[in-house]
Write a structure and sequence with these properties.
The complex is a heterodimer of chains A (131) and B (93). Chain A has 131 residues and is mainly alpha-helical. Chain A has 4 helices and no strands. In chain A, helix 1 packs antiparallel against helix 2. Chain A is globular. Chain B is mainly alpha-helical and 93 residues long. Helices cover 75% and strands 0% of the residues of chain B. The radius of gyration of chain B is 37 Å and the shape is rod-shaped. Classes of the chains: A mainly alpha (131), B mainly alpha (93). At the A-B interface, helix 1, helix 2 and helix 4 of A face helix 1 and helix 2 of B.
Chain lengths: 131, 93
């Protein structure tokens, strides 16, 4: 069976982009903006952390795939910039959550920025084939 | 948004399992949607098919141009040999 690297990248990028929306919903529960009877804020936050660690690992893998297989190309400058910004936003968010950086009150904005960057990075690459 | 209180929440373990199950369902849905969009031929095959279609179109255009040029080359020869064989009719009259 022949494996196309582009398809693997598109698939993984689409999965993490979809999960990014779910992460926002989980933290809306965590911050008590939404109060479903079947999910407590503490559990939602824990689930957000667990799924977030998985998303981070997959995103790093996709980034390595992108740089290693496709290389940095002038044709994909926008995608490269957005991808780099996404990785930086994720790094800052993780650093704040783990207490390496101050700024807990900015976490919701960081989270929204991560979501926007996930979607923008996806549109700039996978969106060309799928939309 | 607060939903009506329908009783005690499920246990922490059940809530966590439900959250992770929802994430797995989202993953499956995303894989299904992307696979349906890409189709059985795959992206590489689609690109190859597009390139082959472009080459076929260019070859057809080249063939049409060559045929037109060949017709233009034959046309002057056909004008010299007119069916009545008359030349310069006004002079004779």
């Amino acid at each position: 069976m022949r494996i196309d690297v582009s398809e693997v990248k598109i698939l993984l990028a689409s999965v993490v982009a979809a999960l990014a929306f779910y992460q926002v919903v989980l933290m809306a529960v965590g911050y008590r903006k939404i109060r479903p009877p079947f999910l407590s804020p503490a559990t939602a936050s824990l689930a957000h952390r667990a799924i977030g660690d998985t998303i981070l690992a997959v995103t790093l893998f996709v980034a390595a795939l992108c740089i290693g297989y496709f290389e940095l190309d002038d044709d994909k400058a926008l995608h490269s910039i957005l991808g780099a910004a996404l990785l930086m936003a994720l790094a800052v968010k993780v650093a704040v959550v783990r207490g390496w950086l101050h700024g807990n009150r900015y976490l919701p904005f960081l989270g929204i920025a991560v979501l926007v960057l996930f979607v923008a990075t996806w549109v700039s690459s996978a969106g060309v084939y799928l939309l | 948004m607060t939903l009506p209180d329908s009783g005690p929440r499920p246990s922490h373990r059940a809530q966590m399992a439900g959250s992770l199950l929802a994430a797995i369902l989202i993953i499956i849905a995303a894989i299904y949607a992307v696979s349906a969009r890409i189709g059985p031929t795959g992206i590489a095959d689609q690109q190859r098919a597009a390139e082959e279609a472009e080459e076929a179109r260019e070859a057809a255009e080249d063939a049409a141009e060559e045929a037109a040029e060949a017709r233009q080359e034959e046309a002057p020869g056909a004008e010299r040999q007119s069916p009545s064989g008359r030349r310069g009719g006004r002079d004779r009259e």
